[in-house]
Amino acid sequence: MNKKIKLNNGLEMPQLGLGVYQIPEGQATYDAVSLALRLGYRHIDTAHAYQNEKSVGQAINDSGIERNDIWVTSKLWPTEYADPTAIDRMLKRLGLEHIDLVLLHQQVGNVDAGWKMLEKAYLDGKVKAIGISNFDGPRLTKIFDSAKIKPQIIQVEMHPYQQQKDLKAYLAPYRTVMEAWYPLGHGDKVLLEEPLFAELGEKYGKSAAQIILRWHLQEGIVIFPRSTSEVHLAENLDVYDFELEPSELTEIEAMDKNKAYFELPYEEQVQR
Ligand code: NAD
Questions:
Q1: 50 part of the active site
Q2: Where, by residue number, does substrate bind (predicted)?
Q3: What confidence score (pLDDT) does residue 268 get?
């Protein structure tokens, strides 16, 4: 449980966590994060756009767990990239003194100003690691070419139907760690009911979701599947007592169809 992965700045983070996208602010988020921490999760992925940072921070502060033992990620929305107060406001919403990882959530807006702000927050010690989410094509290469501090993390849609192989190859020289959003395909039944996962599940005594999560971990990917149910939260953490064989990893690799469940927002949608 809580196996760590090393970033290109030497820092280590728990490879598996809880994502809180679409969990409403208030009691629901507070309860989900509190329960996850009780079960042993030590990594929470939120964002300003999810509007639940306040309850994430409250659950962490009330947990009695050492702050340094919990990894907290949040994300800046493009409308904040040129606002020099954005990080301090994020810290205030979370009620925390530092954030472990802050990402630029989308590749639109004033990315140059946003990245400079993250570099400054990193050098000031307010943020322990910095990265990007949903960048591709020329905007991805531009940030890697121009950044003084290269992104330590990139978070993108990733699951057996969308394996991001080109991105993986591009990032290798930078040793930028990849994080998968929609690690379970957002719960898509077609993915979860693939016969291969049923077969492997039978062999290892695991569910389809556990097979998929284990595959991500063995690929060196950081994951934070979302759930509010105790059964699923516990199940998603219980993926460290078996290992997929190389031939099984190859079979899952062959499922890639470059399929995105979610179309990234255009400039005008983000600026609203
Ligand atoms: P997911 O792939 O984690 O799937 C969640 C769905 O799967 C939910 O419906 C849940 O009930 C179900 N589920 C969870 N555990 C299960 C299990 N063991 N068996 C069967 N079903 C199970 O999708 P997600 O929550 O949308 O994404 C995960 C996290 O990724 C988010 O919470 C968020 O933190 C992050 N995210 C980031 C971005 C981005 O733009 N950076 C976009 C989307 C999500």
A1: yes
A2: 105
A3: 52
Looking at residue 269, its pLDDT comes to 57
Dist. CA 131 → ligand 1 center (Å): 20
ipTM confidence: 0.98
d(CA 81, CA 20): 22
**Total tally of structural domains belonging to the chain:** 1
Q: Is residue 4 part of a domain?
A: no
- Ligand 1 neighbours (beta carbon < 6 A): 19-21, 45, 133-134, 155, 181-187, 207, 209, 224-227, 232, 235-236
Q: Is 265 a residue whose pLDDT tops 70?
A: no
Residue 269 lies in a domain: no
Ligand 1 centroid–CA 225 distance in Å is 5
Q: Alpha helices, DSSP H only, in 124-272?
A: 137-146, 165-171, 189-192, 195-204, 208-218, 230-237, 246-253, 267-270
Residue 272 has pLDDT above 60, yes or no: no
Residue-range definition of the domain harbouring residue 111:
11-258
Confidence of residue 1 (pLDDT cuts 50, 70, 90): confident
**CATH code, domain with 51:** 3.20.20.100
Q: How many CB atoms lie within 10 A of CB 95?
A: 14
